[in-house]
Fold:
Amino acid sequence: MAGKTYKTEGIVLRSIRYGEADRILHLYTRERGRIGAIAKGVRKPKSRFGGRLEPFFRLSLVLHRGRGDLSTVSAAETIEGYPELRSSGRAIAAASDACGAVLRLLEGTGPNEAAYNLLCRYLGLLDADPDGPLASGPGMVAFRLKLALAAGFGPELAAFATCGSSEEVAGFSGAAGGVVCAGCGAGSFALSPEGHAFMVEAIGNPLAELPEADEMAVRQAGRAIGETLEHHAHVRLPRPEARKAA
Structure:
């Protein structure tokens, strides 16, 4: 692939200053998955890229693949800048959490259009309602649940992960990757009916239809998906901020 110029659409997950005027970019792209790139001279006052190579920008990109690990950004046009999102500290925190989850969970994987579309949808909803429920702890946990499903690590919530039964849920086991009964609960933590219901509805409903839940249920759901990813994807995500929905 060395020496090849290519086009792709992507979202800036992270942007890091490099040298006197450059930036290193972590991108998640529709066609190629996660890639790294360098934008040369982007921090100069007269840079042709302006301020669009910042986190959360959705871009149409032209990149050149050289001999190293990083592609070089040749051109970038804004598809969506999500300006309203950037006006709210809560929305910025939620968007950062989502981009960080994509950065860690989908590292080294190929393209995942479902995950890409999910991230675009989440950023769009945050932009439409920057201080709304999706910018809270429940919204961040719901995003993680859907992202885990898109990445192939969705938790087992319908039948018990160890014995396959479907009686009353007693707990959740990250090692088993799903709900467990009282007899199979070794190494699990208690999962309330409310916590279980939140997980089921958050995965099954569109992002815009965030289920209602109390703080304990959301904490349980966050722990469940966190332990599942730690055991099965070998990824440890920081706990989402415990924010109440507006």
In short: Residues 85-232 form a domain with the de novo design (two linked rop proteins) fold (CATH 1.20.1440.120). The beta strands are 4-18, 22-29, 33-39, 58-65, 71-80, 171-173, 178-180, 189-190. The longest strand covers residues 4-18.
